[in-house]
Specification:
The protein is of the alpha+beta class. It is built from 13 helices and 16 strands. The protein folds into three domains: about 70 residues, no CATH class; about 170 residues, no CATH class; about 170 residues, no CATH class. Strand 8 and strand 9 form a beta hairpin. The radius of gyration is 27 Å and the shape is globular.
């Protein structure tokens, strides 16, 4: 071997033991994909693929909102970007009370509404909506463990839900004791109840109408993670708390996740966000007989997958513009509204929704209808920041702002293709406003047939650039 006469494969055969490691006395039963919480304020998990590769996923909770009624029941949750869940309870003055645990009650749902606001660059925003009526229920209140839920056909699975919620409540109390966290745990407990309730509704829905909703249930978990981090006084998106107690690291990992211990720590970043440094660190598997994982900072995102997704969405929008009969509408706005309805139906049917936590509420850009410049993508209050930069900077500075704000999480072709789309509109605008006719483009786009023609041409430009990039780079 010292003379280099042994191949890597031969050396591997001798040095690496294949097959499952024997069970050890201190083994922990760790479900695959279990998250651990780090006191620097992020959640982390390790997904090993053999001994040569260890995928690391890190999640930093974003600020979320919980709305409740006067009974303490959760009526809505949302994140700051794109997702919202609304709950309306049945008007029942006598909810089911758990025998032996009167502080825990079961309330039937009247309506459950999932809302996923999507942005398809450069200029399309739409909402996917899923609705269930008069189905399901949620427990409310902290289980003591003394309750004896009895079978009730109107509340299927109530015994199992009560047991799982009680186990979660015990873990939270254990952590609070070690970390000396003060304050009510009611929101965490009721979010746990809500997750079980919504999971049952969505996964038992056989209609096939809302396949994207299965991913939307994860919003409850994201809000739970945010609330946990907020109570612990650790990092949540946009703010940090100094002096996180690193000595509590093993306590957190041991009790909240029952997971293996990641040795990776976050460094303070200049922008107030945690950064992850895995160099020189290892991860501990749940089985004591298995090999520890050495980790690095090497990360990857699949640019081909990102561009393919952008291409698929651009094609879906273009097809919606093609499929809606423009002759049925009296003006461009009515036609465009019909296109959005058609697009929503298609996305619902295909089970597509935006799952990107970095997705933006705003459409990145549009075409100014009188001067034909690149402009912000809307006129509501949400676009005030973009309009302020547009009004007080050069054309190039505004373009740089749009690119850096809305297109900084993927390959440059996403920006260039979207920019080509908008340039198509700008060219039409300049053609129609020539000779001082400042309302020329506005009048042109008020005709549904013209609106259809202009949008299809713009999407053709965007699709052509995305497809060419894929053909060249992703064979």
């Amino acid at each position: 071997m010292t003379q280099g006469e042994v191949s890597y494969e031969e050396l591997e055969e001798v040095a690496v033991r294949f097959g499952a490691a024997p069970a050890g006395e201190d083994d922990k039963n760790i479900p695959w994909g279990r998250w651990s919480f780090h006191p620097d304020g992020y959640f982390i998990r390790f997904l090993p693929q053999g001994y040569t590769r260890n995928n690391i996923q890190v999640y930093v909770p974003r600020d979320c909102l919980i709305e409740k009624d006067n009974l303490g029941r959760i009526t809505a949750i949302c994140d700051r970007n794109t997702r919202r869940i609304e709950i309306e309870y049945a008007q029942n003055p006598n909810p089911l009370t758990i025998a032996g645990d009167p502080q825990v009650k079961a309330y039937k749902f009247k309506k459950i509404r999932f809302i996923n606001r999507m942005t398809i660059p450069p200029e399309m925003t739409t909402e996917l909506v899923a609705l269930w009526e008069n189905i399901g229920y949620a427990l409310v209140g902290k289980p003591s463990g003394k309750g004896k839920p009895s079978y009730n056909a109107s509340f299927p699975g109530i015994d199992e839900r009560y047991k799982k919620a009680h186990a979660c409540a015990e873990d939270i109390d254990l952590i609070d004791g070690h970390l000396k966290i003060q304050g009510s745990t009611s929101d965490l407990i009721n979010l746990t109840h809500l997750k079980y309730a919504l999971f049952d509704i969505v996964h038992n829905d056989r209609s096939g109408k809302y396949r994207w909703a299965r991913y939307h249930v994860d919003l409850v978990s994201n809000v739970w993670q945010y609330e946990f981090s907020r109570r612990a006084g650790t990092f949540v998106w946009g703010q940090t708390t100094d002096g996180a107690d690193k000595s509590l690291f093993k306590v957190l990992l041991g009790y909240i996740t029952r997971s293996f211990r990641p040795w990776s720590m976050a460094n303070a970043a200049g922008n107030g966000k945690p950064t992850l440094d895995n160099t020189g660190n290892t991860s501990m598997p749940g089985s004591t007989g298995k090999q520890r994982g050495g980790n690095s900072n090497a990360g990857e995102a699949d640019p081909c997958a990102q561009v393919q997704q952008a291409l698929d969405f651009a094609k879906a929008v273009r097809d919606a513009y093609k499929n809606v009969d423009a002759s049925k509408y009296s003006n461009g706005k009515e036609y465009n509204d019909a296109v959005i309805d058609e697009l929503n139906n298609t996305l619902n049917k295909n089970g597509q929704a935006s799952a990107d936590p970095n997705s933006q509420q705003n459409a990145p850009m549009g075409t100014h209808e009188t001067n034909c410049d690149l402009a912000p993508g809307g006129t509501t209050d949400a676009y005030d920041g973009d309009w302020n930069i547009y009004d007080n900077s050069t054309t190039q500075m505004f373009e740089d702002h749009i690119k850096n704000t809305y297109f900084n999480n993927g390959p440059d072709i996403l920006w260039r293709a979207a920019r080509a789309h908008e340039q198509s509109h700008m060219n039409t605008c300049r053609d129609k406003t020539g000779g001082g006719n400042t309302d020329g483009y506005k009048d042109y786009m008020n005709d549904p047939a013209n609106y259809q023609k202009d949008e299809i041409a713009a999407y053709d430009e965007q699709i052509a650039k995305l497809q060419a990039w894929l053909d060249w780079n992703c064979k």
